[in-house]
Design brief:
This protein is an alpha+beta fold. It is built from four helices and four strands, in the order ββββαααα.
Length: 174
């Protein structure tokens, strides 16, 4: 592997095939996202795709899940276009009912894949929101503990100033 920086690598297989790979960590797991083969995908395109993946990660989205959702959406759109064309051909009798039914089944499957991919993205967003809420709550607890500690230190300093004998008993300066 040859690093380009920002977790973007040009991977070279034992057979000599070259491909771009983006590595990232999501939910504590190392993930790798293929960006395409070299030279079909150039350095500039690989860098742009890796930058988009980093933007998604910054928004706590999984780049692979987003890629899968986009691919499923494109597939569903292509299936719908094919279905529309076949519907016209069926009306004219140029396509059999069996062929048309097979395309309809493929369209339903593509639609289900899109729904599943979108549901995964929604779950990722919900997990991110819950995580952010937990972090905010913990930060608030820490801030309160620091404020409480500061208050106790100030009270101790006041007591020491008011009672020199307390300071002597504790071994501190009078």
């Amino acid at each position: 592997r040859h690093s380009d920086g920002g977790n973007l690598y040009l991977s070279i297989s034992k057979a000599g095939a070259k491909s771009w790979v983006f590595f990232y960590r999501k939910d504590g797991k190392q993930r790798e996202m293929g960006l395409g083969g070299y030279p079909a995908v150039g350095l500039a395109d690989a860098r742009e795709t890796a930058a988009e993946a980093r933007r998604l990660l910054a928004q706590a989205q999984d780049p692979l899940a987003a890629k899968k959702a986009a691919k499923a959406e494109a597939n569903a759109q292509n299936q719908q276009e094919n279905l529309d064309r076949l519907g016209l051909l069926k009306k004219t009798g140029a396509v059999s009912t069996t062929d048309f039914d097979q395309v309809v089944a493929a369209q339903k499957q593509a639609t289900a894949e899109v729904a599943a991919a979108k549901a995964q993205l929604d779950r990722n967003a919900a997990n991110k929101a819950a995580y952010d809420a937990g972090v905010a709550q913990r930060e608030a607890e820490i801030a309160k503990q620091k404020a409480d500690a500061d208050t106790l230190r100030a009270q101790a300093d006041m007591l020491k100033a008011q009672r020199p004998e307390v300071a002597r008993a504790q071994g501190g300066p009078v």
